[in-house]
Amino acid sequence: MKILVVDDEADVQPLFLQRFRKEIREHELEFDFALSGEEALTYLEAKHSEVVLILSDINMPGMSGIDLLSRIRHQYDAPPPVVMMITAYGDEENHRKAMDNGANDFLTKPLDFNLLKQKLKTLAT
Amino acid sequence: MQVFYFLAILFLAFRFKKDFRFVPAYEKWKPFFNYAWLAMLLYAFSQHQFGDIATGFIGILLLSAALYYLEKEPDFKPLKFHLQSHYPLLAVGLVDNLTQLLFPAFYEHWDTYFIFAILGSFGWIYARWATAKKQREELLKANSRNAELDRLVNERTAELTSQKNELQATVKLLQATQAQLIQQEKLASLGELTAGIAHEIQNPLNFVNNFSEVSMELIDEMTEEIERGNTTEVVAIATDLKQNLQKIIHHGQRADGIVKGMLQHSRSGGDSKEPGDINKLADEYLRLAYHGLRAKDKTFNASLITNFADNLPMISMVMQDVGRVLLNMFNNAFYAVQQKKALLGADFKPTVEVTTSLHNKNLQIAVKDNGTGIPDAVKEKIMQPFFTTKPTGEGTGLGLSLSYDIIVKAHGGSIDIVSTEGEGATFIISLPV
Lengths: 125, 433
Description:
The structure holds two protein chains of two kinds. Chain A is an alpha/beta fold. Chain A has one domain (2-124): Rossmann fold. Helices cover 45% and strands 22% of the residues of chain A. Chain A is built from six helices and five strands; from the N terminus they run βααβαβαβαβα. Chain A has a five-stranded parallel sheet, sandwiched between helices. The radius of gyration of chain A is 13 Å and the shape is globular. Chain A starts with a strand and ends with a helix. Chain B is α+β, with helices and mostly antiparallel strands. Chain B has helices spanning 3-19, 25-34, 36-72, 80-84, 87-102, 104-228, 231-266, 278-296, 319-344, 376-379, 399-410; strands at residues 274-276, 303-308, 315-317, 351-359, 362-369, 414-420, 424-432. Chain B is rod-shaped and about 175 Å long. Classes of the chains: A alpha/beta, B alpha+beta. The interface between A and B is medium-sized, with 23 and 27 residues.
């Protein structure tokens, strides 16, 4: 399962790579990273058919996560990738906005990796 | 006809009694003037005994003696003017009686005129008195009016003095209020930061926690691998662990730096200049401003472009003050692009660009935005205290004037504004190295 992680903080990469070490080793999951919404879109242009899940931060400079979300929903709808929003701002309004724009799920930072793992398991099935 | 001389003496006595009642000399002279009545008796007697002409001469003599004596006495100085008025009567009387004596026929012929002359000169005494009295009264009135005016002027002066004192007190109060407002402005900008700072600290703290958790997992794995004897894998994990710890240190220090920065910002005193890295300062406050704004308005988004020149010299400055100036510039830039976004909608890409550079002997920080821009009319006033284009309650109008004070007055630098209305604005801060 190819997963794209979009977050302006570069340090999320080693975090994911280590947390999902086993899964990556056993080729259950494959992670790619983009540092901005723009980068994510460029990546998707090439690899959109391969990416099954997109995990995106909401507050990033430049294109916001919500922005990215709506673009993904407009451009790549066959098949539509699962998009989960991750953010530090876990309030009602953000949640609503994310859902209104077609997010599949909404997670707050700090990431509960165990929870994420569970969600990924349900996705895989 | 001869009675007039005696009457004159009598009237003199009356005049004395009336006007001199409150003068100390009064008691001294009172008895004498009571004798004036004797003059009338004398007249009656003389007229009967000696006839007209003799009485006339006696009268004149008596009056002259009285006048002479009174003029000599210093006590009667105020009456001098009045006494002199009697001279015409004396003169006319003398002529009258002499003529009567020496030229009786002539006198008989012209006696009407003589009578008029005597009456006239007698009346003259009192007419003159009346005029003089009137003049005295006018003088008194003028004096009392002057006194009244003086009183009014004094009242007015007292009023104005008390008004002046009130105004001075008000000015002091306003100055104190202004100082308070400036302090509140500083606190308010600190308040704005708090939300941004909370977010800023949360990020590094998340990493500290996450990397710590991951490291725990890795250690469990490592233990397994050690038991299995997979040395290569163990070494790989060890490398990862080390990296993780480094990241923990890095993010811990990040949080530390942010807290330190926040503490510095809230301190209202501290004017000591220290050498500082302007790039770091600008970067820190840019993020703070951005996150602060996003904490208030979650829809807000902007592209942040930073062009930090390398090898800039450290510059001696009051860090929290210059930081506050940068914060103000960034907040203004964000506000401007936010306004424009509200007008233009989704197609507009708000961009805020920060550039640092060295120009001659000056460090320049340019804050450029593609927001609503500044009209020329506003450009001149923008640095004035309390001037704001924001709606009531949204801005104090103190940000730029405080910035001006800090950059220009405290650091000897300058702030330049380049702007085209509708397109954007660039604020250029220059600080001498």
